[in-house]
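name: query_chain
kind: protein
chains: 1
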Amino acid sequence: MAGRSVRELPPPSSRRGRARRELRAEVDRRILDATAALLGGGATLTSLGVEQIASAATVSRSTFYLHFRDKTDLLVRLADRATAELFATADRFWTEDHSGGPEQLSAVVLSMVRIYRRHESVLRAVIEVGGYDPGVARFWRERMDRYADFMREQIEVDQRAGRVAPALDARHTAFAVVWGVERAVSEHVRAAGAGDDAAFSRALGRATWMAVFGDAAGQPVTTL
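structure:
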Protein backbone atom coordinates (compact mmCIF):
# COMPACT_ATOMS: atom_id res chain seq x y z
CA MET A 1 0.00 0.00 0.00
CA ALA A 2 1.37 3.38 -1.00
CA GLY A 3 2.89 5.44 1.79
CA ARG A 4 3.13 2.53 4.26
CA SER A 5 6.65 1.77 5.46
CA VAL A 6 7.59 -1.87 5.30
CA ARG A 7 9.91 -3.26 7.97
CA GLU A 8 12.72 -5.10 6.30
CA LEU A 9 13.52 -8.52 7.70
CA PRO A 10 17.13 -9.63 8.00
CA PRO A 11 18.18 -12.14 5.38
CA PRO A 12 17.71 -15.84 6.27
CA SER A 13 21.46 -16.35 6.71
CA SER A 14 21.56 -13.54 9.29
CA ARG A 15 18.65 -15.04 11.22
CA ARG A 16 20.30 -18.46 11.22
CA GLY A 17 23.56 -16.96 12.46
CA ARG A 18 21.79 -15.18 15.29
CA ALA A 19 19.92 -18.35 16.25
CA ARG A 20 23.21 -20.28 16.37
CA ARG A 21 24.81 -17.63 18.59
CA GLU A 22 21.81 -17.66 20.93
CA LEU A 23 21.88 -21.46 21.12
CA ARG A 24 25.61 -21.44 21.84
CA ALA A 25 25.16 -18.85 24.60
CA GLU A 26 22.35 -20.93 26.12
CA VAL A 27 24.46 -24.11 26.17
CA ASP A 28 27.40 -22.15 27.63
CA ARG A 29 25.14 -20.89 30.39
CA ARG A 30 23.78 -24.35 31.17
CA ILE A 31 27.27 -25.83 31.48
CA LEU A 32 28.53 -22.92 33.58
CA ASP A 33 25.48 -22.99 35.87
CA ALA A 34 25.65 -26.77 36.28
CA THR A 35 29.33 -26.64 37.22
CA ALA A 36 28.77 -23.80 39.69
CA ALA A 37 25.97 -25.83 41.31
CA LEU A 38 28.19 -28.91 41.59
CA LEU A 39 30.99 -26.88 43.15
CA GLY A 40 28.49 -25.25 45.49
CA GLY A 41 27.36 -28.73 46.53
CA GLY A 42 30.82 -29.54 47.82
CA ALA A 43 32.54 -31.04 44.78
CA THR A 44 36.07 -29.96 43.84
CA LEU A 45 37.14 -29.26 40.29
CA THR A 46 39.59 -32.16 40.37
CA SER A 47 36.88 -34.57 41.52
CA LEU A 48 34.44 -33.51 38.83
CA GLY A 49 34.58 -35.42 35.57
CA VAL A 50 33.56 -33.94 32.25
CA GLU A 51 30.91 -36.66 31.95
CA GLN A 52 29.40 -35.59 35.29
CA ILE A 53 29.38 -31.93 34.30
CA ALA A 54 27.85 -32.69 30.89
CA SER A 55 25.15 -34.87 32.48
CA ALA A 56 24.24 -32.15 34.99
CA ALA A 57 23.96 -29.66 32.12
CA THR A 58 21.96 -32.20 30.02
CA VAL A 59 24.43 -32.06 27.15
CA SER A 60 26.69 -34.68 25.64
CA ARG A 61 30.39 -35.00 26.39
CA SER A 62 31.17 -34.05 22.79
CA THR A 63 29.02 -30.91 23.15
CA PHE A 64 30.99 -29.94 26.25
CA TYR A 65 34.20 -29.99 24.23
CA LEU A 66 32.62 -27.90 21.49
CA HIS A 67 32.14 -25.14 24.08
CA PHE A 68 35.13 -25.53 26.43
CA ARG A 69 38.66 -26.77 25.81
CA ASP A 70 38.86 -28.48 29.19
CA LYS A 71 37.90 -28.03 32.84
CA THR A 72 40.51 -25.29 33.29
CA ASP A 73 38.92 -23.27 30.50
CA LEU A 74 35.55 -23.85 32.17
CA LEU A 75 36.83 -22.62 35.54
CA VAL A 76 38.34 -19.50 34.00
CA ARG A 77 35.03 -18.70 32.30
CA LEU A 78 33.17 -19.19 35.58
CA ALA A 79 35.63 -16.93 37.42
CA ASP A 80 35.41 -14.30 34.70
CA ARG A 81 31.63 -14.23 35.09
CA ALA A 82 31.87 -13.89 38.88
CA THR A 83 34.52 -11.16 38.87
CA ALA A 84 32.63 -9.21 36.21
CA GLU A 85 29.74 -8.90 38.68
CA LEU A 86 32.09 -7.97 41.53
CA PHE A 87 33.94 -5.32 39.56
CA ALA A 88 30.74 -3.86 38.10
CA THR A 89 29.60 -3.30 41.69
CA ALA A 90 32.91 -1.67 42.63
CA ASP A 91 32.59 0.59 39.59
CA ARG A 92 29.52 2.16 41.18
CA PHE A 93 31.78 3.90 43.66
CA TRP A 94 34.93 4.66 41.67
CA THR A 95 33.21 6.11 38.61
CA GLU A 96 30.43 8.04 40.35
CA ASP A 97 30.17 10.86 42.88
CA HIS A 98 32.00 10.09 46.15
CA SER A 99 30.09 12.59 48.28
CA GLY A 100 28.73 9.80 50.48
CA GLY A 101 32.20 9.30 51.94
CA PRO A 102 33.21 6.14 53.79
CA GLU A 103 29.59 5.13 54.37
CA GLN A 104 28.97 5.07 50.63
CA LEU A 105 32.08 2.98 50.03
CA SER A 106 31.16 0.63 52.88
CA ALA A 107 27.76 0.00 51.27
CA VAL A 108 29.51 -0.94 48.03
CA VAL A 109 31.87 -3.26 49.93
CA LEU A 110 28.87 -4.93 51.57
CA SER A 111 27.32 -5.55 48.13
CA MET A 112 30.62 -7.07 46.98
CA VAL A 113 30.78 -9.35 50.03
CA ARG A 114 27.28 -10.63 49.29
CA ILE A 115 28.19 -11.26 45.65
CA TYR A 116 31.36 -13.05 46.75
CA ARG A 117 29.27 -15.32 48.97
CA ARG A 118 27.08 -16.26 46.00
CA HIS A 119 30.16 -17.17 43.96
CA GLU A 120 32.29 -18.45 46.83
CA SER A 121 32.65 -22.03 45.58
CA VAL A 122 33.85 -20.87 42.16
CA LEU A 123 36.25 -18.24 43.49
CA ARG A 124 37.57 -20.67 46.09
CA ALA A 125 38.23 -23.16 43.29
CA VAL A 126 40.17 -20.53 41.35
CA ILE A 127 42.44 -19.86 44.32
CA GLU A 128 42.92 -23.59 44.91
CA VAL A 129 43.60 -24.54 41.29
CA GLY A 130 45.75 -21.45 40.77
CA GLY A 131 48.14 -22.94 43.32
CA TYR A 132 49.21 -25.62 40.85
CA ASP A 133 47.89 -24.53 37.44
CA PRO A 134 49.96 -21.70 35.90
CA GLY A 135 47.19 -20.83 33.43
CA VAL A 136 44.60 -20.25 36.15
CA ALA A 137 47.13 -18.35 38.29
CA ARG A 138 47.98 -16.14 35.31
CA PHE A 139 44.30 -15.47 34.58
CA TRP A 140 43.65 -14.42 38.19
CA ARG A 141 46.71 -12.18 38.34
CA GLU A 142 45.86 -10.49 35.05
CA ARG A 143 42.21 -10.04 36.05
CA MET A 144 43.12 -8.34 39.32
CA ASP A 145 45.90 -6.29 37.77
CA ARG A 146 43.53 -4.99 35.08
CA TYR A 147 41.21 -3.71 37.76
CA ALA A 148 44.14 -2.16 39.63
CA ASP A 149 45.04 -0.30 36.41
CA PHE A 150 41.44 0.91 36.13
CA MET A 151 41.45 2.06 39.75
CA ARG A 152 44.77 3.87 39.27
CA GLU A 153 43.18 5.84 36.43
CA GLN A 154 40.22 6.76 38.65
CA ILE A 155 42.54 7.88 41.45
CA GLU A 156 44.41 10.08 38.99
CA VAL A 157 41.10 11.63 37.90
CA ASP A 158 40.32 12.37 41.54
CA GLN A 159 43.80 13.83 42.03
CA ARG A 160 43.23 16.26 39.16
CA ALA A 161 39.87 17.19 40.71
CA GLY A 162 41.52 17.84 44.09
CA ARG A 163 39.75 15.00 45.88
CA VAL A 164 42.92 12.94 46.37
CA ALA A 165 46.26 14.27 47.61
CA PRO A 166 48.67 14.94 44.69
CA ALA A 167 51.49 13.16 46.52
CA LEU A 168 49.59 9.87 46.71
CA ASP A 169 51.25 7.11 44.67
CA ALA A 170 48.25 6.16 42.54
CA ARG A 171 49.74 3.01 41.02
CA HIS A 172 50.93 1.37 44.22
CA THR A 173 47.88 2.47 46.20
CA ALA A 174 45.55 0.95 43.60
CA PHE A 175 47.55 -2.28 43.60
CA ALA A 176 47.50 -2.51 47.41
CA VAL A 177 43.78 -1.71 47.66
CA VAL A 178 42.64 -4.13 44.95
CA TRP A 179 44.69 -7.07 46.16
CA GLY A 180 44.11 -6.22 49.81
CA VAL A 181 40.33 -6.03 49.40
CA GLU A 182 40.32 -9.30 47.44
CA ARG A 183 42.24 -11.14 50.15
CA ALA A 184 40.29 -9.57 53.00
CA VAL A 185 36.88 -10.37 51.49
CA SER A 186 37.95 -13.91 50.60
CA GLU A 187 39.18 -14.66 54.12
CA HIS A 188 36.18 -12.99 55.75
CA VAL A 189 33.72 -15.06 53.71
CA ARG A 190 35.70 -18.22 54.48
CA ALA A 191 35.94 -17.64 58.21
CA ALA A 192 32.87 -15.62 59.24
CA GLY A 193 29.13 -15.91 58.89
CA ALA A 194 26.91 -13.53 56.94
CA GLY A 195 25.78 -11.94 60.21
CA ASP A 196 29.21 -10.27 60.48
CA ASP A 197 29.20 -8.89 56.93
CA ALA A 198 27.91 -5.40 57.78
CA ALA A 199 30.51 -4.75 60.51
CA PHE A 200 33.30 -6.14 58.34
CA SER A 201 32.23 -3.99 55.39
CA ARG A 202 32.14 -0.83 57.51
CA ALA A 203 35.70 -1.51 58.68
CA LEU A 204 37.03 -2.37 55.22
CA GLY A 205 35.17 0.51 53.57
CA ARG A 206 36.62 3.03 56.03
CA ALA A 207 40.14 1.58 55.72
CA THR A 208 39.95 1.77 51.92
CA TRP A 209 38.58 5.30 52.02
CA MET A 210 41.40 6.43 54.30
CA ALA A 211 44.02 4.75 52.09
CA VAL A 212 42.88 6.73 49.05
CA PHE A 213 41.25 9.93 50.32
CA GLY A 214 42.56 10.34 53.87
CA ASP A 215 45.52 12.56 52.95
CA ALA A 216 43.57 14.96 50.75
CA ALA A 217 43.92 18.56 51.86
CA GLY A 218 40.98 19.56 54.02
CA GLN A 219 39.35 16.13 53.74
CA PRO A 220 37.25 15.46 56.84
CA VAL A 221 37.64 12.11 58.54
CA THR A 222 34.27 10.48 59.14
CA THR A 223 33.92 8.22 62.17
CA LEU A 224 31.61 5.31 61.51
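note: The CA atoms of residues 32 and 81 lie 9 Å apart.
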